[in-house]
Amino acid sequence: MEHAHSGSSSTLPGPPAPRRRLAARSTEEVFAALLGEAGVQVDGKRPWDMQVHHPQTAERILATGSLGLGESYMDGWWDCEQVDELIARLLRARLDERVGTTTLLVQGLRAKLLNLQNLKRAWHVGEVHYDTGNTFFEAMLDPYMAYTCGYWKDAGNLADAQEAKLDLICRKLGLAPGMRLLDIGCGWGSLMKFAAERYGVACVGLTISREQAEHGEARCAGLPVEFRLADYREFGAAGDQRFDRVASIGMFEHVGHKNHRHFFEVARRCLTDDGLFLLHTIGKKRRRTPTDPWIDRYIFPNGDLPSLGQIADASEDSFITEDVHNFGADYDHTLMAWHANFEAAWPHFADGYGERFHRMWRYYLLACAGTFRARTTQLWQIVMSPQGVAGGYRRPS
């Protein structure tokens, strides 16, 4: 490093000045600088600032990224008044692409090399997530128990948003009395119950959760609704099951890119030639993005969000895409409503589930809300037809 002349009359060069060594920044300083790029402070006073309680928090998060961020929150190493806004800010600053890349690489290779959603593995998510308990989900969800994104265009509360979503699906499918509807991944039967009550439709639903099937049957008693405990690949293999309409609401995220084409083949073989198929799914903007490792480990084992390109590639031999509707920002509102219900009901579940589960579920709901707020995750409703709707398909307003 050069320095200014001191004014000496000597013409002989003096000894070189010693180089100043740049002090290596500590892990905490690197971490704080990264958060600063997202407008977040460590131990700051704003609701999205991170309050750190454990000295190894920065090291853990920098080493393992999303997995470390979620696990350290579960362990009580840090807190934040608005986890949802914290996550949204981190994603808008694209810090997820710069931290914990080794963990993401392993996750990506795992998904590439293995069929994580094969027939044997497919039942795992039902056992881990959806069998958490019907009473638990009843407290968190709306009266129809719709565990998918609501439609908030004209809705002011969760129940109205979910009814609006269910009615939108029915209108997009053009349901009419006497039709038969197949719901692939029917959950507790929210769509089937609504379609049977409001549109006079007979329904068959497929689920891989025994808890969902038993509870759904009780909720739909007296309606022309049937639950089948079956994987979609096993249904209608002989070609003897045909329906006027087919829907899949919030299940495609568990299918996996290696099975996408087979999924659409199953939907096609179950649909009449003049029928319609509606796919409602969360999606990612780039196909090469791996599944979030924390979500995969703790919430939805072996999940795999599709890209729009992957859906188009897998469906082109079976369907014509008639309509694509993205209302992903509505999932932010839905998740925040679920979180409010969850926290209000938590005292009734605290003894049975424990505080670590409390922090895990809170982080899941709020972090996911943050991803939709940042618009890094999408929600699509896609209407398809086997041969193209004569005169063109018109989305109902």
TrEMBL record:
Principal EC category:
transferase
Sequence ranges of Polar residues compositional bias: 1-11
User: What does the record give as EC number?
Assistant: 2.1.1.79
In the record, what terms sit under GO molecular function? cyclopropane-fatty-acyl-phospholipid synthase activity
Q: Which UniProt keywords apply?
A: Lipid metabolism, Methyltransferase, S-adenosyl-L-methionine, Transferase
Annotated region (Disordered) at: 1-21
GO terms in the biological process aspect are: methylation
S-adenosyl-L-methionine as UniProt keyword: yes
Q: Which family does it belong to?
A: Belongs to the CFA/CMAS family.
- What this protein is called in its record is Cyclopropane fatty acyl phospholipid synthase
